[in-house]
Each structure stands twice: as structure tokens, then as C-alpha cells.
Amino acid sequence: MPVIDSHLHLFRSVSESYPRTIYPGLAEADLDVPAEKLITLMESAGVDKAIVVPLGPEDHYLAEIVKQ
């Protein structure tokens, strides 16, 4: 049976290119969680698939990743 992570977020640290909502204690401005890190963590944990949830109403990084 496949292992699926049903709720996670991908985002870059806050910058002009990647503005985003800041959530104190959860998604600080300098926290960086790129797709490459997710894939590495998924492989090491035996997770087969993941459902990515936007961090806020405007998620420039996630939109860029989806296009790839």
C-alpha cells in the first residue's frame, strides 16, 4: 500500500521573488522548504506521494513548482 503525506507546504524564504504570508512559530520569514528537500525527506521516510497545500492565498513558489 502506498504511503501518502496528505498535507504539507513548500515555500522559499521571503524575498522579492517569493513574497509569502509569515506565520510566527510555523513559517518564519527565513524558513526555506524547497521541493528538492521534500523529495529527499520523502525518500528517507518511505513516503510515495504527497499532497501540497498552499501556505497562503498567493504562493508564487508553489505556482512555479506546479509549472515544472
From TrEMBL:
InterPro entries: Metal_Hydrolase (IPR032466). SUPFAM superfamilies: Metallo-dependent hydrolases. This is Amidohydrolase-related domain-containing protein. It comes from marine metagenome.
